[in-house]
Amino acid sequence: MTAATFQYRAVDKAGAKRRGSLKASTQQDAYRRLTMQGLTPVRLRAAEGRAGRGRRIRVSTQEITHFTYQLAVLLEARIPIAEGLISIAEQESNGAFAGMLQEIAASIQAGSTITEAMKPFRRVFGDVYIETVHAAEHSGTMIKVLETLAEMLERQGESGKQLRGALTYPVVVVTAITLATTFLLVFVVPRFADMFAQRGVELPLLTRVLQAFGLSIRNFWWAYGGGAVGAVIGLRLSWRSPQGRRLLDRMLNRAPVVRSALIGLAVSRFARVFGLCLSSGLGLLESLDMAGRASGRPLLQHDAELLMRQVRQGEQLTSALRQCTYLPSFVKRMISAGEQSSELTRLLDVVARHYEREVTHLTKNIATIIEPVLIAVMTGVVLVVALAVFLPMWDMVGLIG
Question: Residue 11 belongs to a domain with what CATH number?
């Protein structure tokens, strides 16, 4: 029979209150196990919101960050980790996440290590989280690593939120321009063109082109809509394949304003994870692998893989860095200095903080940078539509005169 997780509140022989969770096949089996441990159950129930291994659990980065901070505080207070996890689960508003924490606590009480208990939920925590916790567990630096991990997750969340907020204004403006232009092309320009044609005015080329385009949108809207949906699906499928993802990454890397923000985000994340993995006790190759994958950019991951190959062949990190094409020169110099001075972890922290400041500055000013371009685009669109309408009008006035 499949074991289930049961939560309990009990009293031991000394009269002290105890609470926790355990795995058992039935509720009677759970009761028997507790009495064998010298505990008198006061409350015993099956854990609600069991996470399940096959079901996808939706947990935000903010929830993971908050949980990591809480876990670090509980460990620092010398509270047993299983009891701490159950305490966190009882206060967690996300039912699926609470059930997951209860399962982790039950696995730890059954004799598993923290890493072994978390591994079934690797999709929720991520490879970097699991592997750094695993290394910290072996090196005895769990509290320090958890605090650093929580700070890193918090910074990454803030950087991503700032970038999304900065891009909201351009996206809204472009969407508004597209909708307004579509309305003019579909409803306004064709009506004016028909009116001028009925009065015997020869339509200019610009008006005829916009009229034909507007009519095609009206008659074949399903084709345009299907093409847009197909393009979105194609981009998503391309992003999932290594070759397509690298191609799209190269295209993004050529965008004038977005390029700097994306490089800053990727490099700061790379440096943070690289330093965190090294400080938690992981080896150089494992740390490079984790940092490359955590960066989220295929081009930077390719540089990390190149560094790993060169280091495996016996080459020093400093000389291997010369072949990297994505990492900025500043990062290469700092990593080289860190390797030579044996202060690589500290200098990686300097790199991460530097690029985090750059991303913050860019995201605050990205609207100011893009605004002139958007104004120029809007002016161009309005000018083209106005000419398409007014050129025939001027011709008609000339005929009347």
Answer: 3.10.20
